[in-house]
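Hi all, long-time lurker, first post. I run a small reading group and we've been trying to get comfortable going from sequence to structure in the token notation. Rather than ask abstract questions, I figured I'd post a concrete chain and ask someone more experienced to write out its structure so we can walk through it together at our next meeting. Sequence below, copied exactly:
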Amino acid sequence: MIELFLTQYGYLAIFLLLILGIVGPLIPDDTILVLSGLAASRGTLDLFTAIAVAYAGSLCGITLSYVLGRTGAVYVLERFGPTRSLLDSHLPKVEQWFEKYGKWTLFFGYFFAGIRHFTALAAGISKVPFRIFAIYAYPGGLVWVASFVCLGYTVGAQWERLKPLIERGATGIGMAVVIIGLGIWWYRRKHPRPLP
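-- Answer (accepted) --
Happy to help. Here is the structure in token form:
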């Protein structure tokens, strides 16, 4: 689906998907970057243009997340079902990360799915000045984008051979997560915590 979208709309698809991928964790932005590099290795896209467009999309996405946190608009998102559960489960963890590791979370947070999507929100909520936010977040975005696009470019011709292995691995991990989740649910149901 994403590969088809990239093939059809090229740089525009990269830009829009990266904005949506950073703001919301429902789009696999690492995959978008790798597939962009893959398209560049096939000659469909130019490598440096793909990096530049992906970087622009990630900057727009992370800046939008920061603004949502800074202006308090994030609390509007908490009123919607799917967004509310994501914010409730991930944002407190990211805020703890942010307090523990400080502004470097903005730089390295890109490389951790689930952290990447909420670091800018946490920075905005914490009222980190925009200048400090930009100094840490923007270079981190460039390193992240360039790394994953170049990974896709380097894998290039090997992608078709590796793709089934990656898909099988992802399926196995997904099944393991479901099994563990069901186990935790069952355990908590059988051993409820006493009310304080």
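A couple of things your group might point at:
Residues 2-156 form one domain.
DSSP finds nine helices and no strands in the chain.
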